[in-house]
């Protein structure tokens, strides 16, 4: 039985990954599914005023909220899964969990984006790809926005033209 890690951020992209997992499960042996939500730690200048226990409760509530729709969808489909939560850098936690759980692959959802946008954007998917030795499948969910398709390349082109004129 394949073992997969599905990072869940509470975004619309999670739905595309869960649909993919459900389709794969219908085609063959259901995988061993591990859902992972990683919470970004509060900044130190905020965290120092909040007791550790309250921060822990806050992270737990945020994780439950993010994992909720995916858990409901898997429950309705009758697929077993294990939910995990972590606090820290998303890419580091995803990589660590995948190795520790000995996952066969990581399934990550993302928006369809222009190559230029991916080049300048700090994306968790890119950072996971850089860090892990576990195969990563990227499931695209939404189309490229008009701003990403036309606006960003035009802005970059204008900046390059301005740099050449000087």
From TrEMBL:
Highest rank taxon of the organism: Bacteria
Gene3D superfamilies listed in its UniProt record: HUPs
Domain UspA: from-to ranges: 3-138
UniProt xrefs under CDD domains: USP-like
The name this protein goes by in its record: Universal stress protein
Source organism phylogeny: Bacteria, Pseudomonadati, Pseudomonadota, Betaproteobacteria, Burkholderiales
